[in-house]
Design brief:
Length: about 525
């Protein structure tokens, strides 16, 4: 195994054995992630994929298809559809490739301040936590696609504090700008850049003004690019509307905030795919050889900031925990790698056997707990399972059913023309993508108007009026409601067009316009 590297030494060219360790780690992550290629779209994915598709077809996010997320994740979906094809599988292929890229980055970051085994373990622990700890609903989110940029941001900051390596701040800065385009709360990572720059300040030679200006200027480039892009398309008003809606959305604390915070945090810490990482990260605090490494303070701060940013969002959805995984995996890999080196130095084989048994259990227990994912995916790939049975296994909270979305989409696709509009007055926008039908209004989901009451009421009234006007000007061929909502929007201005109930699929009622 290689000796730990100081932060002032660039990593050497990889030896063949190191490439072998990297390939082995990626092979494990790939094996864990293969079932995800057969995942369906969840409600959030449906929004992202429709907006991304509209963008690819010449439309513009927010102006032509609205969502409350910043443009980063929408651009990721558009790129996935453009590069890999306009299919559901393209999204999950992009998610898997992103996870592999993140795992590779973790390997080299861990190799930077530890031994090659630490890199292997960091990559595998991340892959196991992601693919065994996060289900389909909480994968392929903004946090997923932002992970590689986070690694490059941290790596650039670590390299930038080396003597004569100030140019690396020009790499770290734009990565932070890109991260803010994924999630506004990622602006908090600016504190991590300050911690990373600590050695520059402690040297006492001069205030690193050049490096600070380089970092800040580079950070602003992606943000300025976004403003210029939307300005060139006369859509700055829609962008301002987005951040006004976000501010309102973030203001809702909820009466069960503390109870949910405690419950979800406990679930995250004790999940079988994560518990070994948390225990090993705690061990890192107790091992002097890990604490003395030049990058330790940055990694520990990274972990604390990731937890704090999750808490700052005040909702504790499972996918919001994903930024915790990279620093957690790095600290855990460093501790386990150091423990393995110490065990290897012992004459007795007992410490090595105990450590090997613990590591084997850390892999096998979460895999065993999620064995159903692999079995189900294999049966679907080989045609040994009924399609309805497979897709219904992904039915989720609040009555979401991908199988029912597929049925509705197929029904409409077979009975309408490509240019005939469809209105899904529900939070199931995947139907638009699956049916390949356009929405007559930019509001592809009713959730921001009806459900998310913390969004300013003025905005929601404006959106309702805007949606009604768009529907009156371009009445849809088909209407899709939740069955319990039928009659709830009798005031929809449909220009005198009559609609009749044509069929139902599960919770959906499908209406067709007469004539």
């Amino acid at each position: 195994m290689s000796e730990p590297l100081s932060s002032s030494e660039p990593p050497p060219r990889p030896a063949a054995s190191e490439r072998g360790w990297l390939l082995a780690a990626l092979a494990v992550v790939l094996a864990l992630g293969l079932p995800s290629l057969l995942y369906p779209l969840g409600p959030d994915h449906g929004v992202f994929v429709v907006v991304g598709d509209v963008w690819l077809r010449g439309g513009l996010p927010y102006r032509d298809a609205w969502d409350i997320k910043p443009p980063g994740v929408l651009a990721a979906y558009a790129l996935a559809l453009g590069a890999l094809g306009r299919t559901v599988g393209a999204i999950w292929t992009a998610d898997l490739l992103t996870a592999l890229l993140t795992a590779a980055g973790l390997f080299w970051m861990a190799r930077r301040h530890g031994a090659v085994l630490s890199g292997f373990l960091a990559a595998v622990l991340f892959g196991g936590a992601y693919f065994l700890g996060f289900d389909f609903y909480h994968s392929a989110q903004a946090e997923s696609f932002a992970a590689p940029a986070t690694l490059l941001f941290v790596y650039g900051a670590l390299r930038g504090r080396e003597p004569g390596a100030g140019r690396w701040w020009a790499v770290s800065g734009p990565c932070l700008g890109v991260l803010i385009l994924f999630k506004t709360t990622y602006v908090g990572y600016g504190l991590l850049a300050l911690v990373a720059a600590g050695p520059l300040l402690r040297r006492g030679e001069r205030f690193p003004l050049r490096e600070a200006l380089l970092f800040l200027g580079a950070m602003l480039l992606p943000l300025a690019g976004m403003l210029l892009y939307f300005g060139a398309h006369n859509a700055l008003g829609e962008l301002r509307e987005l951040y006004e809606a976000q501010a309102g959305y973030a203001s809702g604390l909820g009466g069960n905030f503390w109870a949910r915070a405690g419950t979800e945090t406990l679930k995250f810490v004790t999940h079988p795919a994560l518990v070994i990482s948390w225990l090993a990260a705690g061990l890192a605090l107790a091992l002097p050889e890990v604490r003395r490494r030049p990058d330790f303070a940055v990694l520990a701060t990274w972990l604390v900031l990731a937890v704090a940013m999750t808490a700052a969002q005040r909702r504790f959805y499972w996918y919001q925990w994903l930024p915790v995984l990279p620093p957690l995996a790095l600290l855990a890999g460093a501790a386990l790698g150091a423990a393995a080196s110490a065990a290897a130095a012992q004459r007795s084989r007992t410490p090595r056997r105990v450590l090997a048994a613990l590591l084997a259990a850390a892999v096998l227990v979460p895999v065993q707990s999620q064995a159903g994912r692999f079995t189900r995916a294999w049966r679907q790939a080989t045609g040994a399972i009924d399609p309805e049975q497979y897709w219904r296994s992904f039915d989720y909270e609040n009555g979401y059913s991908y199988w029912e979305c597929m049925q509705v989409a197929e029904h409409i696709r077979a009975r309408s023309g490509p240019e005939e509009p469809l209105l899904v007055y529900a939070y199931d926008p995947a139907i638009y993508f699956l049916a390949d039908r356009r929405c007559p209004t930019r509001h592809i989901s009713n959730a921001p108007i009806v459900t998310t009451v913390t969004i300013p009421e003025k905005l929601r009234r404006q959106w309702t009026q805007e949606m009604d006007q768009a529907i009156a000007a371009d009445p849809p061929r088909y209407l899709v409601f939740y069955r319990y909502m039928v009659g709830a929007r009798q005031d929809l201005p449909l220009s005198g067009h009559a609609y009749v109930l044509e069929t139902t699929y599960g919770k959906f009622a499908v209406f067709r316009r007469k004539g």
